[in-house]
Amino acid sequence: MSQTRLGPQPSTDLIQAVIVSYGDGHHDTPRGDALRIDTRSLRNPPSDPVVREQMLHATGLDPHVQAYVRTTPGFERIVQRGLDHAQALLDLPGRRFRVDVRVTCA
User: Fold this and answer.
1) Which of 7, 22, 23, 103 has a CA 20 to 30 Å removed from the CA of 30?
2) Average pLDDT, integer, range 7-26
3) What does the pLDDT average to over 20-39?
4) Cβ-based neighbour number of residue 37 at 10 Å
């Protein structure tokens, strides 16, 4: 590891996967080859008038947003399918590339 002013900097040789989530309506789709996971069917707090105001300035890193989204019917199936696909790519024999994952959100 190399050292930075913020502490140890991991070598890019150790990075096996990079996950990027992006909003479909923001028109900022990342470019390049990647496993794409479509989560637009999950509950989207800003689209729900009941919770919109309390969650409008929150992110998916906030526990109350995560709890809300996880109540979507089929949540576990969508997440597990994405994990299974990513793991299959990571487990390829002789893999010499990192696995990029793009999560499309509403």
Assistant:
1) 7
2) 78
3) 89
4) 19
